[in-house]
Amino acid sequence: MSKRLFVAIDLPESTRQLVAALDPHVRGVDWTDPAQMHLTLSFLGEVPNETDLALREKLSLIEFGAFFLPIVGVGTFSARGAPKIIWIGVGKAHPHLFQIHKRVQEAALAIGLEPELRAWHPHITIARCRNVSAQSLRKFLQSNAEFDAGMIRVEDFHLYSSKLTPAGPIHTRELTVSCSRGR
C-alpha cells in the first residue's frame, strides 16, 4: 500500500478568505476551496507505507525558526498560451522558505524518495482553468498583479496525504512539524 503525499505550509483563515474573495467567476475557472489553499514545499507522489514512517521521522528532525512570508501578486502558469493554474505568490526568493524546502527535499532523498527535478516556484494555487482563454482573464490578472494579502507568520509545516476524487482532491494532515522555539 502507498499514500500520495506532499509537504505544505497552511494559510491562516483570514488570508484564505481574502484570497477566496478574488474569485472573478469566469466560466471554466474552478476556484480552490479556501480550506485546501496551501503553499506546497514538496510533492512526494506515491510513497510506500514502509517508507512513510521513515519520512515522518526525518521531517520531524527539521529545525527552523519562525518567519514572515508576504502573500502577494497574482499570476498564471500556462500551457500553449492558455492559463492552466492561477496562483498567488510569496514575494521574491525568501531565504527561510527556500531553506525549509531544501531540508524537506534532503529528508525525502535520505530515505530514497526521488526529488522533483523541476525548478521550484513557490506559490499558492488559487484556481485551476479548463478551456479558458488568456483574454478572458486579462482584466482580472492586470487588476490583481500587485494584490497584497499581507504577511503570514510561518511557524510550522505539514505532511499531507491526498486522495483524488471526482469532486477534487481530499487532503488529510498526517504530521505537523513546528518551528524551534526561541530561534
Fill in the CATH topology. Cyclic Phosphodiesterase, Chain: A
* Strand arrangement in the largest pleated sheet: 3-1-9-10
Q: What is the CATH domain class?
A: Alpha Beta
Question: How many domains make up the coordinates?
Answer: 1
Supply the CATH architecture.
Alpha-Beta Complex
Low-confidence stretches: none
Bin the strand percentage. 35-45%
**Cα radius of gyration in angstroms:** 17 Å
Number of helices: 4
Q: Looking at this structure, what is the CATH superfamily?
A: Cyclic phosphodiesterase
Average pLDDT, all residues: 92
Order of helices and strands: EHEEHEEEHEHEEE
Main structural class: alpha+beta
Written account of the structure:
- The protein has 183 residues and is of the alpha+beta class.
- It has a single domain (2-178), classed as Cyclic phosphodiesterase (Cyclic Phosphodiesterase, Chain: A), CATH 3.90.1140.
- 26% of the residues lie in helices and 39% in strands.
- It has a four-stranded antiparallel β-sheet with strand order 3-1-9-10, covered by helices on one side. It has a four-stranded antiparallel β-sheet with strand order 2-7-6-5, covered by helices on one side.
- A hairpin with a 6-residue loop joins strand 9 and strand 10 (170-178).
- The longest helix is centred in the middle third of the chain and has 16 residues, at 95-110.
- It is globular.
- It starts with a strand and ends in a 5-residue tail after the last strand.
- The model has no long low-confidence stretch (mean pLDDT 92).
Essential attributes:
globular; 183 residues; four-stranded antiparallel sheet; alpha+beta; 10 strands; Cyclic Phosphodiesterase, Chain: A
